[in-house]
Specification:
By secondary structure, the protein is mainly alpha-helical. The protein has a domain of 195 residues. The chain contains 19 helices and 2 strands. A two-stranded antiparallel sheet has the order 1-2. Helix 3 packs antiparallel against helix 10 and helix 10 packs parallel to helix 12. It is globular. The two termini are 35 Å apart.
């Protein structure tokens, strides 16, 4: 007999509100049509803002709900706030692009439900369903520019590679279930504690699951879709892909880490070694791939791959401080990366393209936008006193405490490499003469969004205590 008390629906309030609000917006889109397109966007931002307030004030207590398939704890609250904020800001960027279409806003909001579930996933089945809830709207969004062949190609590659990665991940889940006898993530962690049964099969399962989740975060060697998808998708959607679905993949990894922590070693290889190698390869390949890019969206795609490698350093360390650093860095990355894409989106709309040739002389024609992009790029490098420096400092500190000096040095070397291609973009903006005297007009909406990204990027570089404290409280 089903015990309804096990549902604990009060902890499910943000998801219920999100679903109800999304249904209202869908009805509004059907009733009013194109006349309500931007209204749908504004309504979506209001709904996500409400969800942030609800998540922060719910006074959650650690526990499970929906028969143990989901968990409600500080980390789940963190990811709810993060995903709602990231999508709200992505919708803000999209308002400049989708003036007559309401469907993109609905797709963006619908993917948030999957992200919310990922943040609290406590079961392999829930984890899989949540990943698909994030992925399916993303496939549609990638190909939304139906008349652009690049967009169709992006969507097709996204779907095909996504289907393959999902199959690989499901096979890994089946092996874990076969070894542990349960789909419950805490149950699997308990079953593997002290021993993983057959270490060889266990490590194969971990590798398959890591491959499937690695596709979601553009981890090498499962990154090959990212440059083409980022370039072909509408820039506002690319900005969303670079932060929210990527962070959803890290949320899934976070929930699986107790399972991956089993002390199984085969020929000197364990799960921690797999994360170390993946981190080093991902950040190195991402930065080297960005060196010769002239398209800004492809450059930021390779940059996004590299930053996935930096974040994986925290999972390689696997300590409380390392996981704190991961959550902190995700927030910092949200503002500096979306800020960079905001300027690239404005350049694409007003300057005729997203190549580096289009932003030559931007420092003379549109100095405010050029200066903002320079700040975001320097923060992505990790230069003080910007937020990116503090984020990387936390990650490197966690590695040093674990005596993982080799990976820390690889990370530092990669940050130096990234300086080359970021500075090249800044050089083009401020040193060269503009090829055409085109200006990015600083409208009220663009100015507000630019400052919304710029202020945290600057402030968190000198006053990061409140954010660090909130992240630490979420971890505890």
């Amino acid at each position: 007999m089903v015990n309804l008390s096990d549902l604990n629906l009060s902890a499910f309030l943000p998801e219920i509100l999100l679903t109800a609000g999304l249904l209202v917006l869908i009805i509004a889109e059907l009733v009013r049509g194109r006349a309500s397109a931007r209204g749908i966007g504004w309504g979506g931002m209001a709904l996500l803002g409400l969800l942030i307030v609800v998540a922060l004030t719910s006074g959650n207590q650690a526990g499970s709900y929906l028969f143990g398939s989901l968990v409600d704890d500080g980390v789940a609250v963190f990811f709810r706030v993060f995903f709602a904020l990231a999508t709200m800001l992505a919708i803000g960027i999209s308002l400049f692009t989708f003036r007559k279409e309401g469907e993109p806003y609905l797709l963006l909001i619908s993917s948030v439900l999957g992200m919310f579930l990922l943040g609290g996933a406590n079961d392999l089945v829930t984890l899989f369903v949540a990943i698909e809830l994030v992925s399916i709207p993303s496939y549609i969004l990638a190909g939304y520019n139906r008349r652009d062949p690049r967009s169709a190609e992006a969507s097709l590659k996204y779907v095909l590679y996504g289907a393959v990665s999902t199959g690989i991940m499901l096979y890994g889940f089946s092996l874990l279930y076969g070894l542990g006898g349960t789909t419950s993530i805490p149950g699997l962690a308990a079953a593997f504690a002290g021993s993983a049964g057959s270490p060889t099969i266990y490590l194969i399962a971990v590798g398959l699951v890591l491959a499937g989740l690695g596709y979601k975060i553009a981890m090498v060697p499962f990154h090959f879709w990212a440059p083409d998808v980022y370039e072909g998708s509408p820039t506002a959607i690319t900005a969303f892909f670079s932060v929210a679905p990527k962070a959803a993949g890290f949320a899934a990894l976070f929930r699986m880490m107790d399972v991956f922590a089993a002390p199984a070693v085969v020929a000197g290889v364990d799960a921690r070694f797999l994360f170390t190698v993946a981190s080093a390869l991902t950040m190195t390949f991402g930065n080297l791939g960005a060196l010769h890019q002239t398209n800004l969206k492809r450059l930021l795609a390779y940059s996004s791959i590299a930053h996935a490698g930096y974040i994986l350093m925290g999972f390689a360390a696997g300590t409380f401080e390392a996981y704190q650093a991961v959550l902190f860095y995700l927030v910092v990355y949200l503002f500096m990366n979306l800020g960079a894409f905001l300027v690239v989106d404005a350049a694409g709309r007003k300057l005729g393209g997203e190549d580096t040739s289009h932003i030559k002389g931007l420092g003379r024609t549109s100095p405010a936008m050029a200066l903002a992009l320079a700040v975001f790029l320097f923060s992505l490098v990790g230069l003080p006193p910007l937020a990116g420096f503090i984020g990387k400092f936390y990650l490197f500190s966690a590695l040093v405490k674990e005596n993982m000096w080799a990976l820390a040095l690889i990370g530092v070397a990669n940050s130096v490499i990234s300086l080359v291609y970021y500075v090249r973009v800044i050089r083009d903006m401020f040193i060269y003469e503009p090829e055409e005297a085109k200006v990015i007009p600083m409208t009220a909406g663009l100015g507000v969004l630019t400052f919304a990204f710029l202020i945290p990027t600057l402030v968190l570089g000198v006053w990061w205590g409140p954010l660090a404290g909130w992240v630490a409280a979420a971890m505890r």
